[in-house]
UniProtKB/TrEMBL annotation:
Protein name: Methicillin resistance protein
Assigned keywords, A-Z: Acyltransferase, Cell shape, Cell wall biogenesis/degradation, Peptidoglycan synthesis, Transferase
Top-rank taxon, per record: Bacteria
Lineage, opening ranks: Bacteria, Candidatus Amesiibacteriota
Family: Belongs to the FemABX family.
Matches recorded under InterPro entries: Acyl_CoA_acyltransferase, FEMABX, PG_Glycine_Bridge_Synth
Recorded GO MF terms: aminoacyltransferase activity
Example GO BP: peptidoglycan biosynthetic process
Signal peptide: none
Length: 292
């Protein structure tokens, strides 16, 4: 029997060492904050990361998927030191959020979250048969149907994935990160990331952190969609994630009517076809301050 604990994420990928390395390689600065009074801070695991981007004489900052409360005094010191005029905070959990405390620290809820405010998680700790039986009927059919047309399933063909993804995004009018930024991600995560590519028509990139597989990048060309390959991509990636001892699968965002983005409805329907549990975040908060 599945319980909410089967879907818990121990720590979001944005608070990992690997993500800190990645974001520094694409032009941000990652500041690691220890808890107040932490003995031998140089050796201790950091409490959370602040990502800072310099804009001339001032900077902006973002703090993503952290547990509250934060060590506010240390945070204030960092904001002052780096002349932060805007700090974006996207807390980790929705339950018991100390809204009044956030307001007292100058953070006000805004309407422009940078991360998905709602996601779907699957428990992938059961056996393979149990996992696929949790998919909705249409998803199970599409997996079987796609298996009939498969020619080539490739693991870790990152170059092939990027070229397919770039073409797919161009068709849909979506932005694709520069190739150097894409490889900065792959090189920062090293063996903790993998990619599945099928027939050079559909694929995904997965980041694995603390037993959770995050569905980070994905794409498919029209011929791949017609052959239901995106469904098989998910299935093959879940099996690979299990081999890497992941226990939870996180789809990294679905449509949320609280902060509606109609362009998310299509892929949200696709993600919901795999079952799982919906998880809501509390959105984002911004603190504006004079940097001098």
């Amino acid at each position: 029997m599945e319980t909410s604990k089967n879907f818990e994420v121990r720590e979001d990928l944005r608070q990992s060492e690997e993500y800190g390395k990645y974001i520094e390689r694409i032009g941000w600065k990652a500041i690691k904050i220890q808890d107040p009074g932490e003995a031998n801070a140089s050796r201790s695991r950091f409490r959370f990361q602040i990502f800072i981007r310099k804009l001339g004489p001032v900077s902006i900052a973002k703090i993503q998927r952290v547990d509250l409360p934060l060590p506010w005094e240390k945070l204030d010191q960092v904001l002052k030191k780096y002349r932060i005029f805007m700090c974006k905070l996207e807390p980790n959990k929705d339950k018991g959020l100390p809204i009044q405390e956030l307001r007292s620290k100058g953070f006000k809820q805004d309407s422009w979250p940078m991360l998905g405010t709602k996601t779907i998680r699957l428990s992938i700790s059961p056996n393979i048969d149990s996992i696929i039986s949790g998919f909705k009927k249409d998803a199970r059919y599409c997996v079987r149907n796609a298996q009939n047309s498969v020619i080539n399933i490739q693991l870790n063909d990152f170059e092939g994935f990027y070229e397919m993804w770039r073409k797919a995004n161009k068709i849909k009018g979506l932005w694709t990160p520069p190739k150097k930024d894409f490889y900065s991600l792959i090189e920062s995560w090293r063996e903790k990331c993998f990619c599945v590519l099928i027939n050079n028509l559909a694929g995904c990139v997965i980041l694995v952190h603390k037993k959770t597989a995050f569905y980070y990048y994905s794409g498919s060309l029209p011929d791949g969609k017609r052959a239901n390959l995106p469904y098989l991509v998910i299935w093959e990636a879940i099996k690979e994630a299990k081999k890497r001892r992941a226990l939870v699968w996180d789809f990294e965002g679905i449509y949320d009517p609280r902060w509606p983005n109609n362009s998310w409805k299509g892929f949200s329907h696709f993600k919901k076809s795999f079952g799982g549990e919906e998880v809501e975040y509390c959105g984002s908060f911004t603190r504006w301050r004079l940097p001098f």
